[in-house]
TrEMBL record:
GO molecular function, a single term: pyridoxal phosphate binding
Protein's name in the database: Cysteine desulfurase
Family as reported in the entry's similarity comment: Belongs to the class-V pyridoxal-phosphate-dependent aminotransferase family. Csd subfamily.
A Pfam family this chain is assigned to: Aminotran_5
PROSITE patterns (UniProt xref): AA_TRANSFER_CLASS_5
Length: 411
Protein backbone atom coordinates (compact mmCIF):
# COMPACT_ATOMS: atom_id res chain seq x y z
CA UNK A 1 0.00 0.00 0.00
CA UNK A 2 1.32 3.46 -0.83
CA UNK A 3 1.57 5.33 2.45
CA UNK A 4 -0.30 8.62 2.55
CA UNK A 5 0.62 9.11 6.21
CA UNK A 6 2.49 12.30 5.23
CA UNK A 7 -0.90 13.93 4.59
CA UNK A 8 -1.78 13.76 8.30
CA UNK A 9 0.16 16.97 8.96
CA UNK A 10 -2.22 18.77 6.56
CA UNK A 11 -5.24 18.15 8.82
CA UNK A 12 -5.18 20.25 12.03
CA UNK A 13 -8.16 18.41 13.57
CA UNK A 14 -6.20 15.14 13.66
CA UNK A 15 -3.60 16.64 15.98
CA UNK A 16 -5.50 16.18 19.26
CA UNK A 17 -6.12 13.75 22.06
CA UNK A 18 -9.50 12.40 23.06
CA UNK A 19 -9.14 11.91 26.80
CA UNK A 20 -5.75 10.31 27.33
CA UNK A 21 -5.57 8.89 23.82
CA UNK A 22 -4.58 10.32 20.42
CA UNK A 23 -7.61 10.74 18.14
CA UNK A 24 -8.17 7.83 15.76
CA UNK A 25 -10.75 9.30 13.36
CA UNK A 26 -12.55 6.45 11.55
CA UNK A 27 -15.88 8.19 10.75
CA UNK A 28 -15.02 9.52 7.28
CA UNK A 29 -18.17 8.16 5.63
CA UNK A 30 -20.08 10.65 7.82
CA UNK A 31 -17.74 13.53 7.04
CA UNK A 32 -14.04 13.92 6.27
CA UNK A 33 -11.58 16.17 8.07
CA UNK A 34 -10.42 19.37 6.32
CA UNK A 35 -6.88 20.11 5.14
CA UNK A 36 -5.16 23.40 5.97
CA UNK A 37 -5.38 24.38 2.27
CA UNK A 38 -9.20 24.32 2.42
CA UNK A 39 -9.36 26.15 5.76
CA UNK A 40 -6.97 28.85 4.48
CA UNK A 41 -8.84 29.29 1.17
CA UNK A 42 -12.07 29.99 3.04
CA UNK A 43 -10.32 32.32 5.51
CA UNK A 44 -8.63 34.24 2.66
CA UNK A 45 -11.97 34.67 0.95
CA UNK A 46 -13.49 36.23 4.07
CA UNK A 47 -10.37 38.25 4.81
CA UNK A 48 -10.21 40.00 1.42
CA UNK A 49 -12.76 38.99 -1.26
CA UNK A 50 -16.05 38.65 0.60
CA UNK A 51 -18.91 40.25 -1.30
CA UNK A 52 -22.19 39.20 -2.88
CA UNK A 53 -21.94 37.74 -6.38
CA UNK A 54 -23.20 38.22 -9.91
CA UNK A 55 -24.70 41.69 -9.91
CA UNK A 56 -22.14 43.89 -8.14
CA UNK A 57 -19.89 46.16 -10.20
CA UNK A 58 -17.25 46.87 -7.56
CA UNK A 59 -13.90 45.18 -7.13
CA UNK A 60 -14.81 42.78 -4.31
CA UNK A 61 -18.05 41.69 -5.94
CA UNK A 62 -16.22 40.96 -9.17
CA UNK A 63 -13.51 39.01 -7.32
CA UNK A 64 -16.06 36.94 -5.38
CA UNK A 65 -18.02 36.28 -8.60
CA UNK A 66 -14.81 35.18 -10.31
CA UNK A 67 -14.04 32.86 -7.39
CA UNK A 68 -17.52 31.35 -7.38
CA UNK A 69 -17.58 30.73 -11.13
CA UNK A 70 -13.98 29.42 -11.08
CA UNK A 71 -15.18 26.83 -8.54
CA UNK A 72 -17.95 25.84 -10.96
CA UNK A 73 -15.47 25.39 -13.81
CA UNK A 74 -13.14 23.40 -11.51
CA UNK A 75 -16.02 21.15 -10.48
CA UNK A 76 -16.89 20.47 -14.13
CA UNK A 77 -13.24 19.50 -14.72
CA UNK A 78 -13.18 17.33 -11.54
CA UNK A 79 -15.95 15.08 -12.89
CA UNK A 80 -15.24 15.68 -16.60
CA UNK A 81 -18.56 17.38 -17.29
CA UNK A 82 -18.84 18.87 -20.78
CA UNK A 83 -20.06 22.29 -19.62
CA UNK A 84 -19.80 24.27 -16.35
CA UNK A 85 -23.50 25.08 -16.84
CA UNK A 86 -24.11 21.40 -15.98
CA UNK A 87 -22.86 22.08 -12.45
CA UNK A 88 -25.47 23.29 -9.93
CA UNK A 89 -24.26 24.19 -6.45
CA UNK A 90 -26.58 22.89 -3.73
CA UNK A 91 -26.26 22.28 0.01
CA UNK A 92 -25.22 18.68 -0.57
CA UNK A 93 -26.27 15.27 -1.92
CA UNK A 94 -29.63 15.40 -0.16
CA UNK A 95 -30.61 18.75 -1.70
CA UNK A 96 -29.31 17.67 -5.11
CA UNK A 97 -31.56 14.59 -5.12
CA UNK A 98 -34.53 16.63 -3.88
CA UNK A 99 -33.94 19.13 -6.69
CA UNK A 100 -34.19 16.39 -9.35
CA UNK A 101 -37.21 14.78 -7.67
CA UNK A 102 -39.13 18.05 -7.28
CA UNK A 103 -38.16 19.59 -10.62
CA UNK A 104 -37.62 16.83 -13.17
CA UNK A 105 -39.85 14.39 -11.26
CA UNK A 106 -42.84 16.69 -10.91
CA UNK A 107 -42.66 17.66 -14.59
CA UNK A 108 -42.11 14.19 -16.02
CA UNK A 109 -43.57 11.49 -13.77
CA UNK A 110 -47.19 10.33 -13.83
CA UNK A 111 -49.32 7.32 -12.87
CA UNK A 112 -47.95 4.15 -14.46
CA UNK A 113 -44.36 5.39 -14.44
CA UNK A 114 -41.76 3.60 -12.29
CA UNK A 115 -38.80 4.97 -10.32
CA UNK A 116 -36.23 2.22 -9.83
CA UNK A 117 -34.06 2.33 -6.71
CA UNK A 118 -31.97 -0.26 -4.88
CA UNK A 119 -32.40 -1.79 -1.40
CA UNK A 120 -29.10 -0.21 -0.29
CA UNK A 121 -30.10 3.43 -0.86
CA UNK A 122 -29.44 6.07 1.81
CA UNK A 123 -32.65 7.78 2.96
CA UNK A 124 -31.53 10.87 0.99
CA UNK A 125 -31.86 8.87 -2.25
CA UNK A 126 -35.03 7.13 -1.19
CA UNK A 127 -37.40 9.46 0.69
CA UNK A 128 -37.43 12.22 -2.01
CA UNK A 129 -38.51 9.55 -4.54
CA UNK A 130 -41.25 8.28 -2.20
CA UNK A 131 -42.48 11.87 -1.88
CA UNK A 132 -42.59 12.60 -5.62
CA UNK A 133 -44.10 9.17 -6.33
CA UNK A 134 -46.94 9.99 -3.92
CA UNK A 135 -47.42 13.38 -5.63
CA UNK A 136 -47.39 12.07 -9.21
CA UNK A 137 -48.85 8.59 -8.93
CA UNK A 138 -45.59 6.97 -10.03
CA UNK A 139 -44.50 3.80 -8.23
CA UNK A 140 -41.21 2.60 -6.75
CA UNK A 141 -39.32 -0.61 -7.41
CA UNK A 142 -36.14 -1.82 -5.70
CA UNK A 143 -33.19 -3.84 -7.01
CA UNK A 144 -32.56 -6.38 -4.22
CA UNK A 145 -29.25 -6.93 -2.45
CA UNK A 146 -28.03 -10.54 -2.39
CA UNK A 147 -26.60 -12.59 0.49
CA UNK A 148 -27.49 -12.71 4.18
CA UNK A 149 -24.86 -10.03 4.82
CA UNK A 150 -25.40 -8.35 1.42
CA UNK A 151 -21.98 -9.72 0.58
CA UNK A 152 -22.98 -10.26 -3.07
CA UNK A 153 -24.03 -6.63 -3.59
CA UNK A 154 -26.89 -5.95 -6.00
CA UNK A 155 -28.74 -8.91 -7.53
CA UNK A 156 -27.96 -7.97 -11.14
CA UNK A 157 -29.84 -11.06 -12.42
CA UNK A 158 -33.02 -9.44 -11.08
CA UNK A 159 -32.25 -6.19 -12.87
CA UNK A 160 -33.57 -7.13 -16.33
CA UNK A 161 -36.95 -8.08 -14.87
CA UNK A 162 -37.09 -4.78 -12.98
CA UNK A 163 -35.73 -2.49 -15.75
CA UNK A 164 -38.87 -2.42 -17.93
CA UNK A 165 -40.00 0.39 -20.30
CA UNK A 166 -42.17 1.82 -17.49
CA UNK A 167 -38.99 2.78 -15.59
CA UNK A 168 -38.39 6.48 -16.21
CA UNK A 169 -35.52 6.97 -13.74
CA UNK A 170 -33.02 4.60 -12.11
CA UNK A 171 -31.44 6.26 -9.03
CA UNK A 172 -28.68 4.33 -7.24
CA UNK A 173 -25.68 4.80 -5.00
CA UNK A 174 -22.15 4.42 -6.34
CA UNK A 175 -20.78 3.20 -2.98
CA UNK A 176 -23.06 2.07 -0.16
CA UNK A 177 -22.42 4.03 3.04
CA UNK A 178 -23.32 0.95 5.10
CA UNK A 179 -22.11 -2.02 3.05
CA UNK A 180 -19.09 -0.50 1.30
CA UNK A 181 -20.32 -2.14 -1.91
CA UNK A 182 -18.97 -0.43 -5.05
CA UNK A 183 -21.73 -0.70 -7.66
CA UNK A 184 -20.90 -1.11 -11.39
CA UNK A 185 -22.11 2.37 -12.29
CA UNK A 186 -21.28 2.35 -16.00
CA UNK A 187 -23.02 -1.01 -16.47
CA UNK A 188 -26.11 0.11 -14.55
CA UNK A 189 -26.32 3.33 -16.60
CA UNK A 190 -25.97 1.41 -19.87
CA UNK A 191 -28.69 -1.07 -18.92
CA UNK A 192 -31.02 1.77 -17.86
CA UNK A 193 -30.41 3.60 -21.14
CA UNK A 194 -31.47 0.47 -23.08
CA UNK A 195 -35.02 0.81 -21.74
CA UNK A 196 -35.03 4.60 -22.09
CA UNK A 197 -34.64 5.33 -18.37
CA UNK A 198 -32.64 8.28 -17.06
CA UNK A 199 -30.06 7.69 -14.33
CA UNK A 200 -29.10 9.53 -11.15
CA UNK A 201 -25.90 8.44 -9.41
CA UNK A 202 -25.55 9.14 -5.68
CA UNK A 203 -21.79 9.79 -5.49
CA UNK A 204 -21.71 10.93 -1.85
CA UNK A 205 -19.34 8.12 -0.82
CA UNK A 206 -17.32 7.91 -4.01
CA UNK A 207 -16.63 11.50 -5.12
CA UNK A 208 -13.56 12.04 -2.92
CA UNK A 209 -12.34 8.47 -3.16
CA UNK A 210 -12.62 7.26 -6.76
CA UNK A 211 -11.93 8.85 -10.16
CA UNK A 212 -15.32 9.96 -11.55
CA UNK A 213 -16.01 10.76 -15.20
CA UNK A 214 -19.68 11.55 -15.82
CA UNK A 215 -19.26 11.29 -19.60
CA UNK A 216 -17.60 7.89 -19.35
CA UNK A 217 -20.32 6.73 -16.95
CA UNK A 218 -22.92 8.26 -19.29
CA UNK A 219 -25.18 9.12 -16.35
CA UNK A 220 -27.83 11.83 -16.61
CA UNK A 221 -27.55 13.22 -13.06
CA UNK A 222 -24.91 12.83 -10.35
CA UNK A 223 -25.05 14.18 -6.80
CA UNK A 224 -22.40 14.70 -4.13
CA UNK A 225 -21.45 16.67 -1.00
CA UNK A 226 -18.34 18.75 -0.42
CA UNK A 227 -17.97 17.76 3.25
CA UNK A 228 -17.21 14.13 2.41
CA UNK A 229 -14.29 15.05 0.17
CA UNK A 230 -12.22 17.40 2.37
CA UNK A 231 -14.53 20.33 1.56
CA UNK A 232 -16.70 22.40 3.94
CA UNK A 233 -20.23 21.49 5.01
CA UNK A 234 -23.09 23.31 3.25
CA UNK A 235 -21.85 22.97 -0.33
CA UNK A 236 -22.72 20.15 -2.69
CA UNK A 237 -23.21 19.59 -6.38
CA UNK A 238 -25.83 18.37 -8.76
CA UNK A 239 -24.44 17.45 -12.17
CA UNK A 240 -27.07 17.21 -14.91
CA UNK A 241 -26.98 16.92 -18.69
CA UNK A 242 -27.38 20.46 -20.09
CA UNK A 243 -30.38 19.53 -22.22
CA UNK A 244 -32.20 18.09 -19.20
CA UNK A 245 -31.40 21.03 -16.92
CA UNK A 246 -32.59 23.59 -19.48
CA UNK A 247 -35.87 21.68 -19.94
CA UNK A 248 -36.62 21.30 -16.23
CA UNK A 249 -38.70 23.88 -14.32
CA UNK A 250 -37.01 25.90 -11.55
CA UNK A 251 -37.39 24.36 -8.11
CA UNK A 252 -36.99 27.50 -5.99
CA UNK A 253 -37.86 31.13 -6.83
CA UNK A 254 -35.90 34.23 -5.90
CA UNK A 255 -33.11 36.56 -6.91
CA UNK A 256 -30.45 35.60 -9.42
CA UNK A 257 -32.53 32.97 -11.26
CA UNK A 258 -34.80 35.30 -13.28
CA UNK A 259 -34.53 37.26 -16.53
CA UNK A 260 -37.64 39.33 -15.89
CA UNK A 261 -40.22 39.59 -13.09
CA UNK A 262 -43.65 41.20 -13.49
CA UNK A 263 -46.35 41.21 -10.87
CA UNK A 264 -48.04 38.18 -12.41
CA UNK A 265 -45.37 36.52 -14.50
CA UNK A 266 -41.65 35.71 -14.40
CA UNK A 267 -39.20 34.41 -16.98
CA UNK A 268 -36.17 32.40 -15.91
CA UNK A 269 -32.49 32.15 -16.72
CA UNK A 270 -31.09 28.85 -18.08
CA UNK A 271 -28.98 26.49 -16.00
CA UNK A 272 -27.07 26.89 -13.70
CA UNK A 273 -28.58 30.18 -12.43
CA UNK A 274 -32.11 28.78 -12.87
CA UNK A 275 -31.47 26.44 -9.92
CA UNK A 276 -29.48 28.78 -7.69
CA UNK A 277 -32.04 31.18 -6.24
CA UNK A 278 -30.76 33.65 -3.65
CA UNK A 279 -27.27 34.33 -2.33
CA UNK A 280 -25.20 31.20 -2.85
CA UNK A 281 -22.65 29.58 -0.54
CA UNK A 282 -19.69 31.46 -2.06
CA UNK A 283 -17.17 30.52 0.64
CA UNK A 284 -18.33 26.90 0.42
CA UNK A 285 -17.68 26.85 -3.31
CA UNK A 286 -14.25 28.42 -2.76
CA UNK A 287 -13.50 25.74 -0.15
CA UNK A 288 -14.76 22.99 -2.48
CA UNK A 289 -12.41 24.28 -5.20
CA UNK A 290 -9.47 24.04 -2.79
CA UNK A 291 -10.55 20.51 -1.78
CA UNK A 292 -10.58 19.38 -5.42
CA UNK A 293 -7.10 20.80 -5.95
CA UNK A 294 -5.90 19.07 -2.78
CA UNK A 295 -7.29 15.66 -3.77
CA UNK A 296 -6.04 15.85 -7.35
CA UNK A 297 -2.55 16.74 -6.11
CA UNK A 298 -2.57 13.34 -4.37
CA UNK A 299 -4.50 11.52 -7.12
CA UNK A 300 -7.84 9.76 -6.66
CA UNK A 301 -6.61 6.40 -7.99
CA UNK A 302 -4.00 6.43 -5.20
CA UNK A 303 -6.68 7.39 -2.66
CA UNK A 304 -8.95 4.56 -3.84
CA UNK A 305 -6.12 2.05 -3.45
CA UNK A 306 -5.29 3.37 0.01
CA UNK A 307 -8.94 3.18 1.16
CA UNK A 308 -9.28 -0.31 -0.21
CA UNK A 309 -6.11 -1.53 1.47
CA UNK A 310 -7.17 -0.21 4.89
CA UNK A 311 -10.64 -1.72 4.45
CA UNK A 312 -9.09 -5.08 3.56
CA UNK A 313 -6.82 -4.93 6.62
CA UNK A 314 -9.76 -3.99 8.87
CA UNK A 315 -12.07 -6.66 7.43
CA UNK A 316 -9.47 -9.40 7.85
CA UNK A 317 -8.77 -8.40 11.48
CA UNK A 318 -12.49 -8.04 12.32
CA UNK A 319 -13.16 -11.52 10.94
CA UNK A 320 -10.92 -12.91 13.71
CA UNK A 321 -13.17 -11.50 16.46
CA UNK A 322 -15.73 -13.76 18.17
CA UNK A 323 -19.47 -13.31 17.61
CA UNK A 324 -19.09 -10.79 14.81
CA UNK A 325 -21.14 -10.30 11.65
CA UNK A 326 -19.45 -8.32 8.87
CA UNK A 327 -21.60 -6.75 6.15
CA UNK A 328 -20.72 -6.22 2.51
CA UNK A 329 -18.34 -7.79 0.01
CA UNK A 330 -15.94 -10.56 0.94
CA UNK A 331 -13.98 -9.64 -2.21
CA UNK A 332 -11.91 -6.57 -1.33
CA UNK A 333 -11.93 -5.37 -4.93
CA UNK A 334 -15.65 -4.65 -4.61
CA UNK A 335 -15.40 -2.75 -1.31
CA UNK A 336 -14.86 0.96 -0.75
CA UNK A 337 -13.13 2.43 2.28
CA UNK A 338 -15.53 1.28 5.01
CA UNK A 339 -16.55 -1.79 6.98
CA UNK A 340 -19.81 -2.25 8.93
CA UNK A 341 -20.12 -4.98 11.53
CA UNK A 342 -22.35 -6.15 14.37
CA UNK A 343 -21.51 -8.14 17.49
CA UNK A 344 -24.04 -10.72 18.64
CA UNK A 345 -23.76 -9.63 22.27
CA UNK A 346 -22.82 -5.93 22.18
CA UNK A 347 -25.00 -3.13 20.77
CA UNK A 348 -23.42 -0.75 18.25
CA UNK A 349 -24.00 2.23 20.51
CA UNK A 350 -22.07 0.53 23.33
CA UNK A 351 -19.24 -0.30 20.92
CA UNK A 352 -19.00 3.32 19.74
CA UNK A 353 -19.22 4.74 23.27
CA UNK A 354 -16.48 2.47 24.60
CA UNK A 355 -14.27 2.94 21.53
CA UNK A 356 -14.55 6.71 22.02
CA UNK A 357 -12.96 6.25 25.45
CA UNK A 358 -9.92 4.89 23.60
CA UNK A 359 -9.96 7.89 21.22
CA UNK A 360 -11.40 5.82 18.37
CA UNK A 361 -14.22 7.66 16.49
CA UNK A 362 -16.70 5.25 14.87
CA UNK A 363 -20.37 5.52 13.86
CA UNK A 364 -23.11 3.28 15.25
CA UNK A 365 -26.73 3.06 14.19
CA UNK A 366 -28.80 2.49 11.05
CA UNK A 367 -26.71 4.92 8.93
CA UNK A 368 -29.91 6.25 7.24
CA UNK A 369 -30.43 2.76 5.79
CA UNK A 370 -33.40 1.58 7.89
CA UNK A 371 -35.06 -0.56 5.17
CA UNK A 372 -31.73 -2.30 4.46
CA UNK A 373 -31.12 -2.94 8.16
CA UNK A 374 -34.59 -4.50 8.53
CA UNK A 375 -33.99 -6.69 5.48
CA UNK A 376 -30.72 -7.91 7.04
CA UNK A 377 -32.39 -8.48 10.42
CA UNK A 378 -30.36 -5.77 12.14
CA UNK A 379 -31.34 -2.65 14.12
CA UNK A 380 -27.89 -1.13 13.85
CA UNK A 381 -24.25 -1.73 12.99
CA UNK A 382 -20.92 -0.21 13.92
CA UNK A 383 -19.09 1.34 10.99
CA UNK A 384 -15.40 2.17 10.57
CA UNK A 385 -14.65 4.33 7.53
CA UNK A 386 -11.27 5.34 6.22
CA UNK A 387 -9.59 8.11 4.24
CA UNK A 388 -6.23 9.38 3.06
CA UNK A 389 -4.86 10.28 6.51
CA UNK A 390 -5.69 6.97 8.23
CA UNK A 391 -2.90 4.45 8.78
CA UNK A 392 -2.53 0.69 9.33
CA UNK A 393 -1.54 1.47 12.94
CA UNK A 394 -4.96 3.11 13.43
CA UNK A 395 -6.64 -0.09 12.28
CA UNK A 396 -4.58 -1.89 14.93
CA UNK A 397 -5.83 0.64 17.53
CA UNK A 398 -9.42 -0.07 16.43
CA UNK A 399 -8.98 -3.83 16.86
CA UNK A 400 -7.26 -3.41 20.23
CA UNK A 401 -10.18 -1.32 21.45
CA UNK A 402 -12.71 -3.87 20.18
CA UNK A 403 -10.89 -6.66 22.03
CA UNK A 404 -11.18 -4.58 25.24
CA UNK A 405 -14.89 -4.00 24.60
CA UNK A 406 -15.61 -7.69 23.97
CA UNK A 407 -13.71 -8.63 27.12
CA UNK A 408 -15.64 -6.05 29.18
CA UNK A 409 -18.96 -7.42 27.90
CA UNK A 410 -17.83 -10.96 28.50
CA UNK A 411 -17.93 -12.03 24.86
C1 LIG B 1 -24.67 7.31 0.11
C2 LIG B 1 -25.12 8.61 0.74
N1 LIG B 1 -26.04 9.36 0.08
C3 LIG B 1 -26.46 10.55 0.57
C4 LIG B 1 -25.98 11.02 1.78
C5 LIG B 1 -26.44 12.38 2.29
O1 LIG B 1 -25.37 13.29 2.22
P1 LIG B 1 -25.56 14.75 2.87
O2 LIG B 1 -26.64 15.41 2.07
O3 LIG B 1 -24.22 15.41 2.70
O4 LIG B 1 -25.95 14.52 4.29
C6 LIG B 1 -25.03 10.27 2.49
C7 LIG B 1 -24.51 10.77 3.83
N2 LIG B 1 -24.11 9.71 4.68
C8 LIG B 1 -23.83 9.86 5.98
C9 LIG B 1 -23.90 10.97 6.74
O5 LIG B 1 -23.50 10.59 8.03
N3 LIG B 1 -23.22 9.24 8.04
C10 LIG B 1 -23.41 8.77 6.79
O6 LIG B 1 -23.25 7.61 6.42
C11 LIG B 1 -24.58 9.06 1.95
O7 LIG B 1 -23.64 8.31 2.58
Amino acid sequence: MTSLAHTRADFPALNQNVGAHPLVYLDNAATSQKPRAVIDAISRYYERDNSNVHRGLHALSMRSTDGYEAARKRTAQFINAADPAEIIFTRGTTESVNLVAQSWGAANLRAGDVILLTEMEHHSNLVPWQQIAQRTGATLRYVPVAGENAQHGLDLDALDKLLTPEVKLFAFTHISNTLGVINPVAELCARAKKVGALTLVDAAQSIGHEPLDVRALDCDFLAFSGHKMCGPTGIGVLYGRRALLDAMPPWQGGGGMITSVEYFNTTYKPSPERYEAGTPDVSGAIGLHAAMDYLDAIGRPLIAGHDNSLAAQARAALAELPGIRILGPEQNSKRGGLVSFAFNEVHAHDVVTFADQDGVALRGGHHCNQPLMRKLGLSSTTRASFYIYNTPEEIDALIKSLHKILKFFGS
